[in-house]
Specification:
Elements: H1 3-21, H2 64-70, E1 73-75, E2 83-91, E3 98-106, H3 113-125, E4 133-134, E5 143-149, E6 154-159, H4 171-183, E7 191-196, E8 199-200, E9 202-203, E10 206-207, H5 214-220, E11 224-225
Parallel strand pairs: 1-3, 3-11, 6-7
Antiparallel strand pairs: 2-3, 2-4, 5-6, 7-8, 9-10
Length: 240
């Protein structure tokens, strides 16, 4: 066989093998939307309530009227000194696996520290559940006290016994993530612990016996923080 013909046949064979063994097109991952109420979902994680660590999940959808109402949550009572506070809620439209930061209009708040944290607690204890925003806190739960160790930055919240009587899938994870992410947003707070009647709280078989910060929850991987909702003064107030 002539060398030129043999070389041509070899090249053709190699090209065919390359086409057969080359990887096919990769399926595109569903994007995480950047609008209100959309984002990646999660599973659960070791070291906290839930189960196994989450993998990537698709975006989800929130009804347009609900998304608009979320952008105008006003708890200020008409206070002329009202400010915006960011609260992290579990999004029911994600199956409770996405944590969404929401700007809420509230009465004037202390600048930092334990007083500011205490002022944010009502937003966690009484979330706007009608808008699909939840914290997993059982109805009837009340705060007994809040204290901050200025040296370590550990905030301890003491709640009534009703806090341990949650129900439904994922309520303890929603509780954990909402409290830690919201309260560590306060200047001076590095980690959070929740007690019940003066002892470490027990939530769905898991005991909150040490302070937890955002880095701890990121390692758990139970919930995913998604794009947030900014307050829109022009939007229709929630409930209207």
């Amino acid at each position: 066989m002539r060398p030129v013909l043999w070389a041509a046949m070899l090249i053709a064979a190699l090209a065919l093998i390359g086409r057969l063994t080359a990887p096919g097109p990769t399926a595109a991952r569903a994007p995480v939307a950047d609008g209100p109420g959309a984002g990646a979902l999660g599973g659960a994680g070791p070291g906290g309530p839930g189960g196994e660590a989450a993998g990537p999940s698709p975006a989800y959808t929130v009804p347009a009227d609900v998304a608009r109402a979320r952008s105008h949550i006003d708890r200020s009572g008409g206070d002329p000194g009202a400010v915006l506070a960011t609260v992290f809620y579990a999004d029911r439209y994600s199956g409770g696996k996405a944590l969404i930061p929401v700007e809420v209009k509230v009465r004037s708040l202390p600048a930092r520290g334990v007083e500011r944290a205490a002022a944010l607690l009502p937003l966690l204890l009484e979330p706007p559940a009608d808008l699909g925003l939840e914290t997993g806190v059982p109805a009837g739960t009340r705060a007994r006290g809040v204290r901050l160790d200025d040296r370590t930055g550990v905030l301890t919240v003491d709640l009534t016994a009703a806090a341990e009587r949650g129900a439904g899938p994922g309520w303890a994870s929603a509780f954990l993530y909402s409290f830690v992410y919201t309260l560590t947003g306060v200047d001076g707070v590095q980690a959070v612990r929740v007690d019940v009647d003066g002892r470490p709280g027990r939530f769905a078989g898991w005991t909150w016996d040490r302070p937890l910060g955002r880095a701890d929850l990121e390692r758990m991987g139970t919930m995913r923080v998604v794009a947030g909702v900014r307050f829109d003064p022009a939007a229709a107030p929630a409930g209207q």
